[in-house]
Fold each of these.
Amino acid sequence: MNSRLINPLWERLSEESAEALRMSEKEAAAFRANKVARLVGLLPFVAGCDDAQRTALAHLAVFVVANRGESRRVFDHSPTDDAEPLARLRTIADFKGGDAATLERGMALLGLCMVSGYRRDAELDRILDAYNPANVDSSKAAVAESRFREVIAVTKPTELDAILSIEEAEKGYWQA
């Protein structure tokens, strides 16, 4: 994908999403600035997936719903997600076609962001008695993080890294 198209493409996707999902101006601005949302939306394009726009808008809709109001708890990590490190992300991991290595790298960046969030929130979740897989079995979180880092290490950097770098994934927040 031509890297000069990344910003205009994201502007269009975020605008379409904001309109369709009836975001306020404040919500739309936060969404547009969210690097995790940006990666979720642009991954199908960077990977060259079939129906990239449809996939991107569907994944972005899930991303927004998963970060809003009462529906958030439906998308929070639960014990049923513990078996597979990317299980919680399955609703934004459905792609038709596309470069497998690019998709794998993109999902690993998102996974790294997710696991980093578990670690960052562990103490507060413990106090609030909220389910956090890093509190249940910290070795599983370490194994998942190691797996994500391994995928990132063996796949070649792409435009994805300009959208969400490894360092940003380690510090990123899902909330839009």
Amino acid sequence: MSNEYDIEFIQALNKTFLNEEQIKELEGYSKKYANKSDQFLLREIQRIKPTVPQNVINQHINNLDHLYHMDGFINRAQKQRIDMIKKILSSPSGRGKPDAEGQFFCCGSGLLLWFLVLAAIWRRPYYY
């Protein structure tokens, strides 16, 4: 799948599920994390995870399971990245109590975590 198609697919998906304010937040995240290494993104996922309600983390894991089984959209390398990220999300963390027990994109940290997860899987080019 071409990089151009990946970007168009993700932008269309974002517009379907997110409001204008959330899309602007994602654009800000894209600028902030554009040139960060994969290691940095994975550390950020670990750092942000304790601030996100457990039900939202469970939704992220469930969505990753669905993505994993989407033949034609996911290649072997992306499946390996999904497995790695699911391990990070599933591992216990010294969770403090999150501020809100809300919906999938209830708070900035839930949206940021989902952005980081997707960036760690599909970002081009991959930085090491």
Amino acid sequence: MKTKWVIFTVLAAFFVLVAHSGSQAANTRDIDIVRNKPVLESTDLPIINDFVDEAVRELVNTRDFSYIAQLRNTILARRTSRKSSAQTQYTEQFSQSAHKYISEGFKEAELLKPKNRSFMATLNLLILIDGLEDLRLAEPAIRFLKDENTVIRYWAVHSLTSPGFTKQLDPAKAANLQLARRIVEQLKTLVGTPGGQGHEILALVAEFAAEVGVPQGEVLLGQIADLRIKKYADWTVDYEFLDGTVLKLLYKKISTGAVNKAAVSRRFGQLYSYVIQRYVKGRFFLNPTQKHQLASVLVEIEKSCISRLLAKPQTVIKRSIERVDYTRLLLEHSSLLGDQATPGRLPEKLNFNYGTNPNGSTRTAPLTLPDPPLKPSTEE
């Protein structure tokens, strides 16, 4: 129920903010004149600054949420100049002003009463940051990664992990490299806490970890895989669809040159193994939704990842599921991933193992999933 509540809350907040956008927002006459200039003069920069100041203040202090979306879109539509010749001057001033007044806006939002006004103002600012995709605004967003409110935390993560934002974190630039590392470290801390382990947040962080161009991103992706592996082992995992995403991202790392290919491959093998074992061992324990999600992940990963890694179409898992043949599915698990006697085809192809046994010998089989708890789960 908690997961469903989070999804509902995020969507409800979003739709509240985009509804009824018929009212007039901030005054745009002067800023639009500046946007159309091919060359900016020194007197134009204060106009940009004043527009951002006025619009952000209105966003924070409005009590009429019926036109919030229009106000936010008014700001976003004017973040760039219409003339390429003036673009650098314009966007630099807009960025500086956005950082200044959004940072001040968060301080003002903290003081608003009642608490719901403070929440809505903070949420609006985070959604604005998300739309601006400005690296300068990373710091104001980072401070909300540990916020006690789930929706605030979600939008803080969203603003720091969006594809448009991530693409700008070019590690060739020293400042960007430092920022990318800082964001990764903050997200690692978040993922390590219960509040950062909701599947909506984990999906965003995993995508970011796979795309950001620093080695620490691979470590963060491994942390998420380890978290899911642990949840499988103790039968507390939920929303198994997420593991399809995680497995695809691990596969992408393997295929595009992981820093530690063996470690990434090992996590891929162990997580996929647990998905198979959960499907088999949980057939009398799991509810129909859980079994459907597991089956979907198994078939999709066999098609889009396993087949490509082995350079040959693989369909045994799909056929076994269609025929409800658990014995054949377990045989394919051993053949593909390994057993106590021999390595599987995937470890041999990718040159990895599952660590060492207590006696120091190399483990050729993934960990065995414990039997499910005695009490069956119920569908949420």
Amino acid sequence: MRSSLRVVVAAALLAATAAPVLAAPSALIRCDGYGRRQTPGEQVGRGILILGTLGLFGSAEADNPAAREAGEKGIAACTEALTDSRTTGNPVRRAEVLMMRGVRQFEMGRFDDAIADAKAARSVELTPLVRAHFDRNIGAGSIMLEAFARLSQNNQAEAEKLAFQAANARPNGNFLTEEALRIMALSPEVTADERFLIDRLWRLLPNLRPAVNLEGAGDWVGAAASVKTLTAGMTKPGVVILSRLAALQALAGDSKGAEETLAKVSQDIDELAAKAGGTDQAAQTAAQQVARADEMVQLARAQLALNQGKTEEAKGFLAGRPRWLSPAALTAQIIANVQAKGGAGTAPGVDPAKIRSDAAKVAREAVTGKGVLNLLVTMLPRWEEPGEAQDFGKAMTAPSKLMQPKPSRDGAATSISSARVAAIDTVTEALLVAAARATAAKGQDRFAVLLNFILPSTNRAGLTSRLSLLDFVTPADAAFAAQEARAFKVADIEAALGGQYRPPEPVKRTGG
């Protein structure tokens, strides 16, 4: 009897300590990987959004992005999730589910259905105050989803129009603007809208994107000027970007500038080549940079020789290379220029038209179909709590020691950094505000961004930054002169963003 009792007790203890049976993920989790959201409320007196204490419809459930279903299963999960009380009682959460279903429709090639879901996502019923914030994140993300769907339907004009609209939802952020310019780069001409975004991004984020779009349109003067300004803001420009500058200067007809750049980069290439003889990673990287730079130096010298009427010399610089890995637009143009003058036998087997068409195909595949799916699933903006901006405002305001300006580049510039995780465009806006206030504290009225570095990640808000750094100069800095055309006015940044990026006002207590 005692033996039987021990068996029963042991079995009961075993059952009590065994791992619990985990419930299968709900349709909501299988749709986009996230559970319920608090419903945004309003505090009209202060004109800000606050987290609602009510409206937490449905059960709590741990987030699990790994449980997302793709394709048909994802569509079915999102459709079922639209009947969940966590979405029927919360229009923001409903919009996110509609947007993810639209992404899965896109994945399956049902572009009209994807567009319908994107439109439905931004058509949910919201109060005006919530709508204003919604339009900066989910609203903008749904417009960009529709732009990619239109592009996949070969409707370039409508895709560009929508991309421009999405980018303008966050005019002082860089992510959506860069995505819009990737779409616009597929067409051979630079439209007025594209030019507007190029100029805006050029001030926000100095990189090669403006040059890429301008090269694609054959604007060699504009591309050369862009890269020259970019290198002027670098402590030590690399050999690849300098050799690209030389080729662009030669194409733009600036033979003197190209020769000066070639003299500089040739010395730098020689020094780097001395480091490329080993077998470690540093040596391999150096060897790759030397190879890429040497190729563009050859192209630059070919175009320079052509500018000087030395056609046979130009042909010699192109001889013996069956394949070119340099940027397609400038490579194809220089080879075509030399072939037009040199006739038969110039760069045999190399077809500039094929170089262009192959590059266009690769660029298009990157922003249509499977090529863009990860962007749509994980990176497009979703809802971000409106208090993020005020938290950044707190971080940049004394007595906080976060986001405070510090000298950089041996005192030639000023740096501001942040380790706060937030949507990438929110971080960029916050850094601009912090730079504007630091500039004003120096008695200056303008600043130019030299570096806008983001260490990316993803979370529920979409593409985020884990670490961000912004280097800038003011008119009091020697490096400002070369960047003056890219400068922001402090007053403009404060007018556009200052009200959002301030710490919350103390709550006034009433009564005894």
